[in-house]
Specification:
One of its GO terms (cellular component) is endomembrane system. With 464 residues, the chain is an alpha/beta fold. It has 14 helices and 13 strands. It has 4 domains: 1-13 and 38-62, no CATH class; 71-286, Vaccinia Virus protein VP39 (Rossmann fold, 3-Layer(aba) Sandwich), CATH 3.40.50; 301-364, no CATH class; 378-455, Rossmann fold (3-Layer(aba) Sandwich), CATH 3.40.50.150. It has helices at 2-22, 26-55, 57-62, 99-105, 122-129, 169-177, 196-211, 233-236, 290-295, 300-325, 357-364, 386-393, 398-408, 421-431; strands at residues 89-93, 110-115, 134-136, 151-157, 178-187, 214-220, 223-228, 245-246, 264-265, 378-384, 409-420, 437-442, 449-455.
């Protein structure tokens, strides 16, 4: 049934695309015609991919798990909760629909998607529609608009870039973007080539990455993982005349906007040459220490003042915007201001971001959103450790959570909450406000957890 629906959507989309093409004026029809077949094939491919994504669990079953020894180095599909990753920022090249970044988002890994400009706008546009960071950019003749040593990891899964072209300058650009100790993850059929021409290309890439001081960590089928060196001495230990030279101070600059691709290794002159394994892990990394701030000529109190200023600014922005957003529901005298509509915003562009204080303030803002379902939907709500989780994240108050549970629970429905004793006692005190029948149950004598079992009563509003 799902396959039939998908085929129907594809046929409908192609038919609509055909009539749209016929409606184009004769002056542009010739240009459209030449690219029409390619766009039509791309449309079918896009819709089939979306259909695969919509199946969810079936797609994940086909994904191979990373081996246990690599869990400590690169984001894998089976990253365990106790693994401490050095990776925080990822550049996903030719990112499709941003599903790689979406998968990693819950692991607190921030992925920037970049892709070439396409007339159909399929990759970047759909990734942005999904609420994920994306921008149009390409490896052509210019350096990407990111400072040197910007990313902990670069990911290229069949991204369409021929890394062996331009005498290796594309790999040099990838090296410039990677922080010391960063990872380059590449998936391509070229790594398993059987014909001599492609084997020659693969051999060039292997040899060239050695001259960049990249260590080959693993190769599984079509996926290869390299690690950039953390030691500057590696470049001096290379054979004379082997590989690209180091960029001089006049070429190795922090702002590469509109600069041609360079045939030398960049980032070596930067004071930000700090191996990722020596950096604080997220979220501690958000608060740079005194030595790291000194690289940028800043003092800790300056960054603190900037952060506090933006927190206040965000609160003021909400105070100004909320009445406008809710203008169709005017506030009555004595009513409180509506809660900030955090859930109405996902994609935010901050121009001239300075130290990123506005972004940081938005991330720290409380985002307490309603559960996307109808009232009186469930007979039983079970929550184990949920109160502890929300207490750590500071998104919702306990009152907010209980009011939402009451909304989605049917009359005479049950609530079972398992958590620590202090939180259970606090929760029990709130049940009286909701007129829930509640009792606390001891699980085990030596356990620091309790059960709170509640029932929502059935009552009718009394006629006035």
């Amino acid at each position: 049934m799902a396959l039939f629906s998908l085929v129907f959507i594809v046929v409908l989309a192609i038919t609509g695309s055909f009539w749209w093409t016929l409606s184009i004026s004769s002056s542009s029809r010739g240009h459209i015609y030449h690219g029409y077949r390619r766009l039509q094939e791309k449309l079918v491919s896009d819709l089939l991919d979306i259909g695969e994504f919509s199946r969810g669990p079936l797609r994940l079953k086909e994904s191979e798990f990373c081996p246990q020894e690599l869990e400590n180095f690169v984001p894998c599909y089976n990253v365990s909760e106790n693994v401490e990753l050095d990776v925080r920022t990822i550049l996903d090249i030719g990112c499709g629909y941003g599903s790689f970044g979406a998968h990693l988002f819950d692991s607190q890994l921030l992925t920037m998607c970049i892709a070439n400009y396409e007339p159909s706008g399929s990759q970047v546009q759909l990734t942005l529609e999904r609420g994920l960071p994306a921008m149009i950019a390409s490896f052509t003749s210019k350096q990407l608009p990111f400072p040197s040593l910007s990313f902990d990891m670069l990911h290229c899964a069949r991204c369409g870039i021929d890394w062996d072209q331009k005498d290796g300058m594309l790999l040099i650009e990838a090296d410039r973007l990677l922080k010391p100790g960063g990872y380059f993850v590449w998936t391509s059929p070229l790594t398993n080539a059987r014909d001599k021409e492609n084997q020659k290309r693969w051999k060039f890439i292997q040899d060239f990455t050695l001259t960049l001081c990249w260590e080959l960590l693993s190769q599984q089928e079509e996926t290869v993982v390299w690690k950039k060196t953390s030691k500057k001495g590696c470049y001096a230990s290379r054979k004379s005349g082997s590989g690209p030279s180091l960029c001089g101070r006049g070429i190795d600059v922090e702002t590469p906007h509109y600069r041609e691709l360079q045939n030398c290794i960049g980032g070596m002159q930067s004071a930000r040459w700090i191996p990722i394994e020596k950096r604080e892990r997220w979220p501690s990394r958000a608060n740079l220490n005194k030595n790291e701030l000194a690289i940028y000529g800043l003092q800790p109190d300056e960054l603190t003042e900037d952060s506090d200023s933006w927190k206040t600014a965000v609160q003021n922005y909400w105070s100004l915007l909320s009445p406008l957003i809710f203008s169709d529901h005017p506030k009555r005298p004595g009513d409180e201001d509506p809660s900030p509509p955090y859930n109405m915003l996902r994609n935010v562009l901050d121009m001239n971001a300075h130290f990123g204080g506005f972004n940081s303030a938005l991330l720290q803002a409380r985002k307490c959103e309603a559960f996307p379902t109808y009232p009186r939907t469930y007979d039983l709500v079970h929550a184990a450790g949920f109160l502890s989780l929300e207490t750590e994240q500071h998104r919702c108050t306990m009152v907010d959570m209980f009011l939402e549970i009451d909304r989605i629970l049917r009359p005479e429905g049950w609530i079972i909450i398992r958590d620590t004793v202090p939180l259970i006692e606090s929760a029990r005190a709130l049940t009286a406000q909701l007129k829930w029948d509640a009792r606390v149950v001891e699980i085990e004598s030596d356990s620091d957890q309790r059960l709170l079992i509640c029932q929502k009563p059935f009552f009718k509003r009394q006629a006035s």
